[in-house]
Amino acid sequence: MPGESDIAIRARGLTKCFGSLRAVDDVNLTVTRRQVYGFLGPNGSGKSTSIRMLCGLLTPTAGEIEVLGLRIPEQAEELRRHIGYMTQQFSLFADLTLRENLEFLAAVQDLPRREAEQRVDELLHEYHFEGRADQLAGTMSGGQKQRLALAGSVIHKPELLFLDEPTSAVDPESRRDFWEKLFELADAGTTILVSSHYMDEAERCHRLAILDRGRLVADGSPAELTGALAGRTLEVRAEQPRQAKRVLVQVPGVLSAAQIGNSLRVLCEESGDCRARIEQAFADAGVSATVTPIAPSLEDVFVAATNRPADQLATEAP
Amino acid sequence: MNWRRLWAVVIKELRQLRRDHITLAMIVGIPIMQLILFGYAINLNLRHLPTAIADQSLTSGSRQLVMDMLATGVIEPVASAQSPQQLMEMLRRGEISVGVVIPQDFERRLATGEEVVQVLVDGSDTVVQSAAVQLAQMPLTYTPAEPRASSVPLPQARISVVSFYNPQRVSAINIVPGLIGIILTMTMVMFTSVAIVRERERGNMELLIATPVSRAELMLGKVLPYGIIGLIQTSLILLLGMLLFQVPIRGSVLDVYWSAMLLILANLSLGLLISTRAQSQFQAMQMTFFVFLPSILLSGFMFPFDGMPAPAQWLAEVLPLTHFLRLIRGIMLRGADFSDLWPEWLALVVFILVMMTLAIVRFRKTLD
Asked: Transmembrane ranges (chain B) (predicted)?
């Protein structure tokens, strides 16, 4: 049994270069046990590369990794018994049935024959696959495939679970179900590292790290991250929001102004009284608008951390 | 090496194979089709080959010989000629496939037992060639001036065959043992290389390498099912070869299977090595043919090994098929012992060890 300390993952100066591209750049990371830890970032921000390095599938260009008390990549082979890994792309065998897929995984994870049988039945039941055990995995819907993949990755009851964008191709209801399963696993003591580009999923994590262009730009609990922006987020209601936006982007200290229906969501720089300046600018321009403070969201955190509009998360998604 | 994990990979592979109807059909279809195509093409009793006859003798004896030849139905006169030179020219232009020369001193040669007739053959076509050989074996029933015991085939081969463009005659019996090698080379290399690359393409490999399954378990688990398939194919070809073409197995059957097993392993390990290099199934197929074509051309299957220039021979020595052909022809046709042919199987064993080691070393359980 690897180290029983409270730290599941510790990475220092984690870097990966592909040719001249720094896919992951000097990332420091600490994940404590029994947490759901989120990686939030647009595609190409280094989420998958980081996860692959942490479970020993990619060799880091630089940096130190310790997972469950094991040095990675040196002890990756030993680590594989204790982790579950769910790939971004569906990676079970499309031409095997559900049961055959799970049986195969149970065998390569060294479950004794009888225990394996029991565990496969248990998982088929728990993940609502009764009566479909003999269906080919390739014929299932996206949501079902993800559920099966999750069942497959926990077949050996790993202490630590890596999930690489598990819900990127799944409808909202399946996503909710999927997250229910994740919390059940976390309650049972599993540490989970999950990457996503959905804000609502990030909000569910105990802690999260925001990645942008290979760099870790912010990390903490959702409350800490949003709390750090207190007083910097404003809502502007205006008759003509587009006109108001043109005024807003001229105001010094305004980082972003995103239109949401008839209102604008404004994120300001840390220093100075932004609100007064905005109201002044509206008055000067003769635009009628009301400015009120609102609670910061994770979208604001992302914008503040990356200096990029939040919709890039969605538009850069596949 | 964990047997349960290895077995799990084998079972998974077999289950996937069972659902892959096209591959299954190819496993059985390729040997049957190739055997029948190659076998019958070579065994075909050709009729009506376009022929020109230059009868320079013009005696009643020569005329009777010509009539006998025509009566076989193998040749059909399409042009007339006076000299062998004319016949050669017609052969070159492809107007005729067979030329028959009956020399002026036909009667004298017949009396003295010299070769009486020359048959010129377009040897670039093995089928024509073998037909002409049949023609040459036609017994001469004509007996000159003082009759001996009539109708007795004369002791010496009285008709000489000159084969242009392909001095070595290939026969069906020679083809069938070689065909085992050809089919195993084609299917085994292709199946293994594609089987692994397919998993990489579909993303299964990323899942597999994140589990405790070891490199050797993965590789052997992939190779074993195809090894069994290779033995099934071997049996199929042997059986059909014996039934359809009366191919003899003069040596021991066990030795035949030993040889086949060595070639199967050699090809499977080569397939594994290809799979560590190829990025897509298409690349794997191309690399397979990169090996397959020289195997067919240089191994001695199509053209005699001894006739090839030295560099081609060196290259051929590296190909497993070359050594297998020597083994299998030795065992099946000459009745040689496996132990007599030790340089050949030793070469195969070395090939297997080198390829397998390279494949396992090159295969990494990482995505780098």
From this structure: 21-42, 175-197, 223-244, 256-275, 287-305, 345-363
Write down the pLDDT at residue B158. Answer: 55
Q: Are A168 and A88 in contact (CB under 8 A)?
A: yes
Q: Dihedral (C-alpha) B201, B368, A96, B24: value to the nearest 10 degrees?
A: 50
Say if the ipTM goes beyond 0.90. no
Shared domain check, A252 and A155 = no
Q: Which residue of A has its CA nearest to B17?
A: A95
Q: Which residue has the tokens 């007083």?
A: A231
Given a cut of 70, the residues of chain B with pLDDT beneath it are: 41-47, 123-131, 133-173
Mean of the per-residue pLDDT values of chain A: 89
Same structural domain for residues A138 and A235?
A: no
pLDDT of residue A31: 95
- pLDDT, residue B152, reads 40
Is A204 a domain residue? Answer: yes
Q: Measure the CA–CA gap between A164 and B139, rounded to whole angstroms.
A: 81
Give pLDDT tens digits for B171-227: 566 778 888 899 899 889 988 888 889 888 888 999 999 999 988 898 889 889 999
Same domain, A34 and A108: yes
What is the pairing mode between strands A21-32 and A160-163? unpaired
Put simply, the answer to whether B8 touches A107 (Cβ < 8 Å) is yes
Q: How far is CA B29 from the centre of its chain?
A: 17
Q: CA-CA distances (angstroms) from residue B118 to B75, B103, B114, B157, B165?
A: 14, 8, 11, 11, 16
Is residue A151 located within the same domain as residue A279? no
DSSP A136: B
Q: For residue A73, is the peptide bond before it cis, meaning its omega torsion is within 30 degrees of 0?
A: yes
Q: Which domain holds residue A240?
A: 231-295
Contact of A226 with A297, CB cutoff 8 Å: yes
| Cross-chain residue pair B16–A85, CB shorter than 8 Å | no
In chain A, which residues have their Cβ closer than 8 Å to the Cβ of B209?
57
Tell me, what's the pLDDT at B241?
Answer: 86
Determine whether the interchain pair A105/B211 forms a contact, defined as Cβ–Cβ distance below 8 Å.
yes
Residue B301 has a CB neighbour count (10 Å cut-off) of 22
Judged by CB atoms closer than 8 Å, whether chains meet at A95 and B367 is answered as: no
- Domains of chain B plus CATH, in order, are 3-41+171-362 (no CATH), 44-164 (3.40.1710)
Whether A133 contacts A109, CB under 8 Å: no
Q: How many CA atoms lie within 13 A of A130 on its CB side?
A: 4
Q: Are residues A252 and A131 in the same domain?
A: no
Question: Which stretches does DSSP call E strand in B37-187?
Answer: 49-55, 75-80, 98-102, 117-122, 159-164
To 10 degrees, the CA torsion angle through A270, A276, A279, A285? -90
Residue-wise pLDDT tens digits, B212-269:
998 889 888 988 999 999 999 999 999 988 888 778 888 899 999 999 999 999 999 9
